[in-house]
Amino acid sequence: MAVYTEVPDGELAAFVKAYDIGEVVSCKGIAEGVENSNFLMRTTKGSYILTLYEKRVNRSDLPFFLGLMEHLAAKGLSCPTPIKARDGEALRELCGRPAAIISFLEGMWPRRPTERHCQLLGGAMADLHIKGRDFALKRPNNLSLAGWRTLVANTKDRADEVSPGLADTIQDELAFLEKNWPQDLEVGVIHADLFPDNVFFLGDRLSGLIDFYFACTDFLVYDVAICLNAWCFEQKGEFNVTKAKLMIESYAKLRPLPEAELAAMPVLARGGALRFLLTRLYDWLNHPPGAFVSPKDPLEYLKKLRFHQQAKSVAAYGL
Ligand SMILES: Nc1ncnc2c1ncn2[C@@H]1O[C@H](COP(=O)(O)OP(=O)(O)O)[C@@H](O)[C@H]1O
Ligand SMILES: N[C@@H](CCOP(=O)(O)O)C(=O)O
């Protein structure tokens, strides 16, 4: 359950008084999510999400995340927008934590993504990339090559506890990626964690994207590579090439993919797999006993990495 900080009623009422959103009718902790404390808050004027940013979110990154949501929502992307208090500030403090209220988005995330979901996702991701082009703030991706090196250093001594030989596999993969990571692809704002639980649907419509707290400035097509990992493998681990093809094709209808981006896809997909393998491995090895958030399986991403290691070209993804 991702509520790390409880908010007493009195403090909440005082906090909400700074806004023009009516009075609190109810406020319930949301079980999903892992990073922050989230509450579904209903007021006399509507529904909102209240987020208290916890330890892993760097306070200095919050203006980037909140500014990005505001920018994208103002351009018509369906995503939450930060609600400003009467003094014009969206980022405030509650119970000793940085906190913000964002708009509530209708929809459900797909427990079993279909081909149609993947197709709709491709278009929404391209839309995000296009609408983010004129966002003024920058945030380097701290979970790219340099960040992976640090995570490898922090996990290598115990990686083999999770699977024998894992430390060497990871070390070899990092060396490969350091040599082969592309250089000159288009850079812009990426979501960087566009997993099914961060994409909402209502019937046959994609109703919105949430959770911009890993968003950063990186190769746009790296977001596509992350989504190949997160959306296109079936539950038993087999790759669904139809899902990949539909996702990439609908993306490319809005933002055509240059030859260099297509050629880089297998390497970027390997990078995406290593990124989630490493963060999951770190969390697996370091989660405190009795913690209420269960760590996700790192080995799911080892299997995905092995698939991408066999990919000779973008043809492996149906193109
Ligand atoms: N703007 C929103 N509208 C509706 N539900 C939301 C919104 N933001 C978050 N949620 C709900 O809160 C859950 C956790 O949010 P998320 O941002 O993914 O948390 P975390 O960053 O802690 O992983 C989501 O799965 C969703 O159920
Ligand atoms: N998508 C990541 C974990 C981050 O979780 P989120 O709730 O912030 O989307 C993974 O699957 O490893």
TrEMBL record:
The record's SUPFAM superfamilies line, in alphabetical order, gives:
Protein kinase-like (PK-like)
Q: For the Aminoglycoside phosphotransferase domain, which residue ranges apply?
A: 27-256
Substrates-to-products reaction catalysed: L-homoserine + ATP = O-phospho-L-homoserine + ADP + H(+)
Return the EC number.
2.7.1.39
Question: What top-tier enzyme class does this entry carry?
Answer: transferase
Which pathway? Amino-acid biosynthesis; L-threonine biosynthesis; L-threonine from L-aspartate: step 4/5
Q: Which NCBIfam families match?
A: PRK05231.1 (NF003558), thrB_alt (TIGR00938)
* Protein name according to UniProt: Homoserine kinase
| Species per Swiss-Prot/TrEMBL record | Dongia rigui
The record's gene field reads thrB
